[in-house]
Amino acid sequence: MKKILLIIIPFLLFTFSCTNSIEDEVHFISGETMGTTFSIKFTSKTPIDILQIETEINNILQIVNQQMSTYIPTSELSLFNTSLDTNWINVSSDFAFVVSEAQKISKLSKGKFDITIAPLVNLWGFGPDNKPETIPTQDVIDEFKQFVGYKNIEVRLSPPSIKKHNPKVTCDLSAIAKGFGVDKVSEYLLSKGINNHLVEIGGELRASGKKFNNDWIVGISTPNQSATVQEKIKLNNLSMATSGDYWNYFEENGIRYSHTIDPLTGKPITHNLASVTVVANTCAESDAFATAIDVMGPEEGLQFAKDNELKVYYIVKDKNKFSTFYTAQFENLISKGN
């Protein structure tokens, strides 16, 4: 960690020394949060105190992490999960908002997106617990499924609070919290008059305004270990998130178990949809919709996207190669010649 800091700090100092220039360069801030990395690019027509901006962004991300992490025992989410109280529990307005947004998408997707999936995530070893010593049996899966279901919780925004219908219900916000963190940072930059920026956390991102006079150009990664770009798209005041199982899985007896769990079956997905990218107005929406469609698979997911007029890009594994398709709403986003 000390070696990393020695590299980053001089770079930030150099960027800060250039703050008297007008909008003729892209400023850059990066760091770590939510078990991954973040990066922020922006331009400004007025002098910017980069170090102050960086400090305030880190504070914002620390607060979001303290609210929504399952890995921090004292987080707001962890305290809610360990509580056996079935009365209304007061929470922060941000926490209630995220749960409210998650519930809307759960209802829309008929339970394919479900934040009460935490027991199953942990059962399969993709939460704070380690990989299971044995693959769960159907009886064990059924036992855990009785605590899963988005209708087992209620949320209200005023006063911000959440209620369990079953004291053993627990939640996992990992499929929406990163997106929300991106939104919070973007909204902070807008409040500072930094209207042209690109915020990214762990591959989820939000683009505001333009990079100089052009839309921001971002890439959709090929779903393998090569880190190559499958497609370039242009974003202007839009967010993007990708869901796929090619980075997070384990293998047992030659069988690959995806980190994406279907809340209705209680098991990892097995279809051939390698990744799905969703573009929406907010990153929280993009994040949650990407997970929901990833659970659905290519056919059901495509129909869902069409029914809801979503901007979606699919990469499907076909034997030893990948094929792609996308919705009509996504087509205009594809960057040609950049």
Task: Please describe what this structure looks like.
This protein has 338 residues and is an alpha+beta fold. It folds into three domains: 112 residues, Roll (T-fold); 90 residues, T-fold; 123 residues, T-fold (Roll). It contains ten helices and 15 strands. Helix 4 packs parallel to helix 8 and helix 7 packs antiparallel against helix 8. The longest helix is centred in the first third of the chain and has 19 residues.
CATH top level assignment of the largest domain: Alpha Beta
**Topology pattern, helix = H, strand = E:** HEEHHEHHHEEHEEEEEEEEHHEEH
Can you tell me the overall shape? Answer: globular
Cα end-to-end separation: 36 Å
* Major pleated sheet: 8 strands, antiparallel
The low-confidence parts are 1-22
Structural class: alpha+beta
Number of helices: 10
Spell out the CATH superfamily of the largest domain: ApbE-like domains
Give the strand line-up of the largest sheet.
Answer: 1-2-6-7-10-13-14-15
Mean pLDDT: 86
Helix content: 25-40%
Radius of gyration: 20 Å
**Strand content bin:** 25-35%
List the domain count as a whole number. Answer: 3
| Number of E-type strands | 15
Kindly identify the CATH topology of the largest domain. T-fold
CATH architecture identity of the largest domain: Roll
